[in-house]
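Posting this for the archive.
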Amino acid sequence: MERYDLYNRKGEPLGKKAARNDKLSTGEYFLIVHVWIETAPGEYLIHQRNKPSDPTPYQWATVSGMVAQNEPPARAAVRETKEELGIGFIEADLSLLSRIITENAYNTFAYIYRVRKHVDPSTLVLERDEVRAVDTASLEEILRMVREGDFWDYASLLEKDDYFSLLKGRE
């Protein structure tokens, strides 16, 4: 069973662990990562999820996942990308775009990363339990998919209205 560390509102370790689906107490947070792979300027690798247990099953998304026990967020980003899509890179390839604190059904610190890496979707080795299909899309296409209910609405999920603007124009 996956276990992860718990943190307080300041991001300090609480010295406590939890398992997926454990109910957290007030003031307890866990870490998640999002990895946006920019395959060409303004084009992002996206994938269709294949987990019926997802909050919004079978929608399109970017690489995301929970940070495991004793794992730094950047290492989790590298691990999740390798597990889901078979893409390897090193932590130094990551650019941290933001850290978003969310307090809703899930209390999280979400680390949002971008990697600039040319990837041919046809060459990927997909984790079929998690990923149905892959494609590339521009930010405009992704936003259209969000409006149509075909892509995870990270702005709503993370309570960050300008979430997708993080992908615009940052080096």
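The helical segments are 73-85, 139-147, 154-157. The chain has one domain: 3-155.
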